[in-house]
Amino acid sequence: MVFLRFILLLCLDWGTLPQAATPAWHDLKMSVCEIAFVPESQIFEVKFYLFEDDLKATLYPLMHSGQVAASDASAYILKHFALKANNQPLPLTYASMREKNDQVLVQFSSPKIPAGKLRTLFVQNDLLTEQFRRQVNMVYVYYPTQDSRKTEMLDATKTRTEFSF
Using one digit for the tens of pLDDT, what is the confidence trace for 27-41? Predict the structure, then answer.
């Protein structure tokens, strides 16, 4: 009975129900997504910065040791993130993944979009929200216009936004 109370307190404190292993180690539940237009190649580079332990807790709920497989990380991101340019789906192609300290950087690129033709960019980002109730997903968009940097904060209650140019 004491053990069950302890588990319940842990669940309430961390804001999530652990599937079978220890939840991620830190209180801040946040990811950063940078969407930057590259005029020379006319593509978007999309970068995701995630806490490694949060990603592991989501991808591998029964075991938290070992490294995150790039194929697992990219598949997860593509399932929980979407872009639309001018209301047309913008498929992303995996580029690379790096781990440094307690972070994972996963990079993607988009097909070509002619510069100056973008009017709207729709973003859906619900990364890690199924695992962490208090997850915040910051989205930064860089596009060469007079208002070149736009920012939006998404969370479990707001997973979509649209930017206008």
Answer: 889 999 999 999 999
